[in-house]
Amino acid sequence: MSSSNPSLGPLTATQKRVAKVLERMREAALESDDDAQMFAELLEAGLTDLHGQDAFGTEGQCDPRGDFRDGTWSMSHVQGIDD
User: Fold this and answer.
1) Cut 0.90: pTM above it
2) Are the beta carbons of 61 and 69 closer than 8 angstroms?
């Protein structure tokens, strides 16, 4: 994992921690469908809460599950995979 992004400058400690944890979650999800299901449920709850707070734009256009201007997305229906 790179410690900097040339276009953004050096990463903060928080950015590094988030990236490392997500990297480990990705590895676990790819190795085990049970882990993937567990993470999907956790992500669905958290992302839905953030979406309701307009954390991904007022129209949900920056939601990592998909652009809500194009439809309704969830961890069981992700834009680019299930559309």
Assistant:
1) no
2) yes
